[in-house]
Write a structure and sequence with these properties.
Blueprint lengths: L1 E6 L8 H15 L4 E4 L9 H9 L2 E8 L5 E9 L4 E5 H5 L17 H13 L3 E6 L9 H6 L3 E3 L18 E3 L11 E6 L11 H5 L7 H22 L11 H13 L2 E4 H9 L1 H5 L4 E9 L8 H11 L4 E8 L13 E4 L7 H6 L1 H19 L1
Length: 377
C-alpha cells in the first residue's frame, strides 16, 4: 500500500512536519509494511516556509526583526542562490502563533517585520520572491511592511502614524518617495490561502479580525480605517485593488502586496504543490491523507485539504481529511474530492487538552483510516 501524507499544520498544536510524522506512525500501526511518503504542505500560513525549503533545498537563513507587537524576534527565511530566489513567510515575523492568546490585538499589530524580511532578501541580491501570506496576527493591510520598506504614512499634521490598522483612520498622506528602489525589479509571487476582498462583510476585518482579538465594534472601526487606506492608495498608485480576490489575505497583506509590490496573487496550495512536484508524488498513491486544524465552508476558498483533494480527485485517488474540528459547511468538501473527513476528538474535550493530545489523536485516527482502507480493499 502506497500512502501519501500531505497535511498542513494544526494551529497552536503541531507543525505540518510533525503532523505528517504522527499520521505515518498511526498508519504503520495498522499496516507495518505501508509505504508512507510524508509531504508536509502549506497554503501560505505558518509552516509553508518549511515545506518550500524541504522541496527546493533552499538555504534556511535567519534575521532579527520585529514581531507583530514590535518586539525583537528571530525569524527564518529561505534563500536559493542559484536562482536568486527568496522565500519569505509572513507568519515567521507577524504570525498569530508568535503571540499568546491574551496578547492578540487586531487594532495595533503590525507587518513591519515582514518588510524587514523582504529587505533582508533584497540585501542578499534577490531577483525573485515567493511571499507566503497566512497565519497573520495583523490587520494593517500591509501598512507596517510598507513603512519598513521606506514608505511614510502621515497624519494631517505630518506626523508618522503609530503601528496597526486602527491608526489608518487618521491617514492623510502616503509618501512613497523613499520606497526601496530595488522593489521595482523584484519579481514577486504572493501565496494566499483565501480569496476574500479587503473590505466589507467578507473582508479582512470582518472575517478574520475576531480571531485576532477584535470585538464587533473594533471590526467596524478597522474596516473603515482600511477603507481610508485603500482610498489613499488608489489615489497614489492610480489603481484600486480593494476588491481583488485575495486582497483580504493576512489582514489585508494581499492588498499591499499587489498595490505596492506589484505581486501576482496565487492560491498558496497551488504554489506549494508546484514546488514539491505533487503530481509525481500522487501518481503512485493508493490513498491520500491530508488535514489541518479546521475544515469548514471557508476551506473551499483555498485551504490545503481542498487543494490536495482536488488534485487527488483528478487522479481518482481517495483522499481522507483528519482535522481538529469540523466547522459549519464542511460537508461541501465532499464535492471537492474529500472522500471522508474525521474530527480528532474522541469525546468531549477542552481546547487545551485537544491541543496537547493532537499528535496522539492524529495517530489514532490515521490507524483507523488505514485499517478501514485495507479492509475495504
Amino acid at each position: 500500500m502506497n500512502l501519501l501524507i500531505a497535511p498542513d499544520s494544526f494551529k497552536d498544536a503541531l507543525s505540518a512536519r510533525d503532523a505528517a510524522a504522527a499520521i505515518a506512525a498511526g498508519a504503520r500501526r495498522a499496516r507495518p509494511d505501508v509505504i508512507a511518503h510524508e509531504c508536509p504542505m502549506g497554503d501560505g500560513g505558518e509552516g509553508t516556509l518549511d515545506a518550500l525549503l524541504a522541496a527546493t533545498g533552499a538555504e534556511r537563513r535567519e534575521a532579527r526583526v520585529q514581531d507583530a507587537l514590535g518586539r525583537p524576534l528571530t525569524a527564518a527565511w529561505g534563500w536559493q542562490p542559484g536562482t536568486r530566489t527568496a522565500f519569505v513567510e509572513l507568519a515567521e515575523a507577524s504570525g498569530l502563533q508568535q503571540l499568546a492568546r491574551e496578547e492578540r490585538t487586531a487594532l495595533h499589530s503590525t507587518t513591519f517585520g515582514v518588510g524587514e524580511l523582504i529587505r533582508e532578501a533584497l540585501d542578499a541580491g534577490a531577483e525573485r520572491l515567493l511571499l507566503t501570506l497566512g497565519g497573520s496576527a495583523t490587520n494593517d493591510a500591509g501598512a507596517g511592511m510598507l513603512s519598513a520598506l521606506g514608505g511614510r504614512l502621515l497624519d494631517s499634521d505630518g506626523h508618522l502614524l503609530p503601528p496597526g490598522g486602527a491608526a489608518l483612520a487618521n491617514l492623510a498622506e502616503l509618501d512613497l518617495s523613499g520606497l526601496d528602489s530595488r522593489l521595482a525589479t523584484l519579481e514577486i509571487e504572493a501565496a494566499v490561502d483565501v480569496d476574500n476582498p479587503l473590505l466589507g462583510s467578507r473582508g479582512a476585518s470582518a472575517v478574520f479580525g475576531p480571531q485576532k482579538g477584535a470585538s464587533q465594534a473594533e471590526v467596524e472601526a478597522l474596516d473603515a480605517a482600511l477603507s481610508r487606506f485603500a482610498d489613499l492608495t488608489a489615489k497614489a498608485m492610480g489603481t484600486d485593488h480593494r476588491d481583488l480576490p485575495g486582497a483580504g489575505a493576512a489582514g489585508g497583506m494581499g492588498f499591499a502586496a499587489r498595490a505596492f509590490l506589484g505581486a501576482s496573487l496565487r492560491p498558496g496550495i497551488e504554489l506549494v504543490m508546484e514546488q514539491v512536484d505533487f503530481p509525481r508524488l500522487l501518481a503512485n498513491a493508493d490513498l491520500v491523507i491530508t488535514g489541518e486544524g479546521q475544515l469548514d465552508g471557508q476551506s473551499l476558498a483555498g485551504k490545503t485539504p481542498i487543494g490536495i483533494a482536488r488534485a487527488a480527485q483528478a487522479r481518482q485517488v481517495p483522499c481522507v481529511a483528519l482535522v481538529g474540528r469540523l466547522g459549519q459547511g464542511w460537508q461541501a468538501a465532499h464535492t471537492e474530492g474529500i472522500s471522508a473527513a474525521f474530527a480528532l476528538a474522541d469525546g468531549p474535550m477542552a481546547l487545551d487538552e485537544a491541543l496537547s493530545r493532537c499528535a496522539e489523536l492524529l495517530e489514532e485516527r490515521a490507524e483507523e483510516v488505514v485499517r478501514l482502507f485495507v479492509a475495504r480493499t
